[in-house]
């Protein structure tokens, strides 16, 4: 999927709903306020690593941010749900047979999300 240029406005809405300035959010999550500003203005795409930092600050999952950002399609959520309850292999075996090229690319992105999420738990 392509990057969603409207993500910056969504991110800004989240920040303002928490009544945070760019500097306050930056200090809280360890991202420069200049980078946050560029993301909000649509001049910079956030990396998955940056999205991982935003997620807890706004009380949303990294997966939700990845979908809003345009990095994942919403249809990938059942696979993500499988990874949270230990049924990943079973879930993948049931659906992988019918995946097209785009869906396989989404699955690759899922691996990146899981890696980031799991690294965050340690």
CATH class: Mainly Alpha
Proportion in helices: 55-70%
Second-tier CATH architecture: Orthogonal Bundle
CATH topology: 434 Repressor (Amino-terminal Domain)
Main sheet summary: none
Give the number of domains.
1
CATH superfamily: lambda repressor-like DNA-binding domains
Number of separate strands = 0
Q: What is the overall shape?
A: elongated
Unreliable stretches covering 5 or more consecutive residues: none
Average predicted local confidence, pLDDT: 84
What's the gyration radius in Å?
Answer: 15 Å
Tell me the β content: under 5%
End-to-end span in angstroms?
30 Å
- The arrangement of helices and strands along the chain is HHHHHHHH
Class from secondary-structure proportions: mainly alpha
Count of runs of 4 or more consecutive helical residues: 8
What does this structure look like?
With 122 residues, the protein is mostly helical. The chain has one domain: 434 Repressor (Amino-terminal Domain) (Orthogonal Bundle). The chain is built from eight helices and no strands. It has helices spanning 7-17, 22-29, 33-40, 48-58, 62-69, 77-84, 88-95, 101-121. The longest helix has 21 residues, at 101-121.
Keywords:
434 Repressor (Amino-terminal Domain); mainly alpha; 122 residues
